[in-house]
Structures are given as structure tokens and as C-alpha cells.
Amino acid sequence: MRYFRLLGVALVAVCAVCAMMVASAFALPTILPTTITSWKGASIGETELLKANGENVRCAGATLSGTVEANGHLGLYTTNFTGCKIKTPIEAKCTGESGPGTDSEGVILTAGSWHLVYDTLSTSLASAGLAILFLTGKVNFKCTTLAKIEVPLGGMVLCLVLNPTALTKIFETHCSKAAVGNRPLETKYYNEAGTFVSIVALLSNLNGGTFEENTQIGLGTLVYPEAALLMV
Fold first, then answer.
1. Which domain covers residue 79, as residue numbers?
2. Is residue 209 assigned to a domain?
3. pLDDT per residue over 62-98, tens digit each?
């Protein structure tokens, strides 16, 4: 499976401690211990794909699984969205037509890569928190015979990690929208050089029409096989 690499970031091998320290060359955060090679995740309640104008897709839940590369701050993931529906123009189930495996009714499967990055909601990099950046693969799904939707390769979803300094197996994530409009709350992150980088918008189109920006929102958890540190 190809990697959807983090744009503008040189992924270099660094020591585990340096990778955790913002002050040391702004290296990316790293999962410790280094023996962790996988994680699982799940939504807390519903997840939604919101368009600024047009149809919104709502899924009852989602489960995730991911791999962790040796450098500890990136890997691959798959997501299984279940109970997916569209409400307009009529309520109908949305079912994936592409992606890993064969999708069942109301199920949309997606895959891509994830990266740990520093978020930009704080006033400076020195006080930055942690976010997980999901780079999406291409996926097609239909909700009715008249509503076929394509999400192209390379869109990004940036989700805040709420408890990154805890030594725990479970970390809570928030993928949120801004207070006004259907725009993502987090649109920038710090790259390895310590500068702002804007995310690539998550797009979709309806029946081959114009691609429009989307926002994916929902709460979730990341669960590691043993207690982990994401930031020190």
C-alpha cells in the first residue's frame, strides 16, 4: 500500500528523546515506548462529513486500526465507518464503492496515513499541544442512485489530542469544526522546521460535479497495546 507522505516534512530518523522535545530542532513527537507497532481507535458517538453547501453524510460510528513505523510518529491506518446516511434530498444509506475490501450497506471503508504533529491553537510552538493528522486515500460511495460521491486522494483531517502528556493506553481525540460555518477548527500545524503548514482541504464532489471543501467532525479514542507517552 503506498504511503501518503506528510507534505513539506522531511521524515528523518532521530533519537526517541529528541523526537519528543519541541526545543530540540522542533523534531516531531514520537510514540514511546518504541516497542509499540500498532493502535486501535473508535469514535465516541456519531461522525459527520460536512460540506459548506450541499449534502452532509452522518455515520453512527467508526472503528480504526493503525500501524506505527519505527520512527514512531507516522504509519498507515484504515477506518470502518458504519451506519452511514444522507438526509437530503431524501434519507438514504451511504455505501462505499471503493477502498480496501468489499463494503456492506451503510459502510464506508477508507485508508491512508497518519502523522503526529504539533497543533497551532496555542500562542507559540513552545506551548503547542499535539494533533494527529490523517491523510486520506481516494474513496467513492453512493447514497442513492442519484447521489454518487467521490473523495479524492490527499485530503487532510487534523484532530486535537486532548491528553498527550499522560502515560496511558487511551488518548482522546477531537476532530472539530470552527464556531462559524462548516470549516475545520484546526487548519494548520507545525512542521519539523517549526513553521506553520496549512492542511490540504478534504474535498468531495457529487455525481462528478465540482469538488467542494468538507469538514469531518467527531470525537474518538486511540488505544495502544501498552501505556504510551506521546509528549514529554
1. 16-228
2. yes
3. 999 999 998 899 999 999 999 999 876 678 899 998 6
